[in-house]
Design a protein that fits this description.
Its main location: membrane. The chain has about 260 residues and is mostly helical. The protein is built from 12 helices and no strands.
Length: about 260
């Protein structure tokens, strides 16, 4: 089965996918929530379920670039708290994909993103003191990490849409820019690589999809380089506002598409 022939990708459609690949790189090294725009473009050009399989290797390429760039800023206590809950979410997402249609997937993820964006905004407006990343070791911090971890694992498996979920968690935990980017870089590299066997088993990744990935991977690099340049020029308040705004836009796109 030839991917390019089956999906009849035109020059304009390939250009749209290339632009989405640039956004993948940018989201990994700058504003994580921007990745939802890439998700929407891929789902518009390719069949929705198949698009998740094509997008996953590009996300992994972006993750590698982000780890190389921000590897010294990861907060490992947060990561170790998240991974068990994420594993539960990935398994739940795999089971959900076995029977759920594209419409149910989009509505479910969109509703989750908008709900959590609202909760994050409310918490930030009502908090008396700024949150501390070290609070992840407290009981409340562990409960929050577990709930976001399950949602992150679920959303990343069914739609590669965990970026906004984990962005909201890291913002709510009080991470600054570099800690945010370093922690999310390792998180997504490990999680996305672990998803590959599940995606292959579901038929979402195959030889033809990897050929398309090979053609698009080159566009991830300039996006990542631009993100690295831009993030040092974005102040913390604007950074947080962009992450939340990108999450809301992505949720609305999923609900309306």
């Amino acid at each position: 089965m030839n991917t390019m022939t089956l999906w009849h990708i035109s020059g304009w459609e390939f250009a749209a996918l290339a632009f989405a690949a640039v956004l993948v790189g940018f989201s990994k090294t700058a504003v994580s929530g921007a990745n939802t725009v890439s998700l929407a473009i891929f789902a518009a050009v390719l069949p929705a379920r198949a698009s998740t399989g094509v997008l996953l290797p590009l996300l992994i390429a972006g993750d590698v670039l982000a780890v190389v760039t921000y590897r010294r800023h990861a907060h490992w206590p947060t990561l170790w708290r998240l991974f068990p809950a994420v594993a539960v979410g990935v398994v739940a997402g795999t089971l959900f994909l076995v029977w759920a249609g594209d419409g149910m997937v989009r509505v479910s993820i969109g509703a989750i993103l908008l709900f959590m964006a609202g909760v994050t905004i409310w918490r930030r407006r009502t908090a008396e003191t700024p949150p501390d990343p070290e609070a992840v070791t407290h009981r409340t911090g562990r409960m929050k990490a577990h709930s976001y971890g399950v949602l992150g694992g679920f959303t990343t498996m069914v739609a590669n849409a965990a970026g906004p979920v984990m962005s909201l968690y890291l913002l709510s935990a009080g991470f600054r820019k570099l800690g945010f980017l370093g922690t999310s870089a390792f998180f997504f590299l490990i999680v996305n690589v672990s998803k590959v066997p599940f995606s292959v088993g579901l038929g979402l990744i195959d030889g033809p999809s990897l050929l398309l990935d090979a053609a698009l991977a080159l566009f991830v690099v300039p996006g990542a380089l631009f993100g690295k340049w831009a993030v040092s020029r974005i102040n913390q308040r604007l950074f947080e506002q962009l992450v939340i705004a990108a999450t809301i836009v992505g949720g609305v796109q999923l609900l309306l598409r």
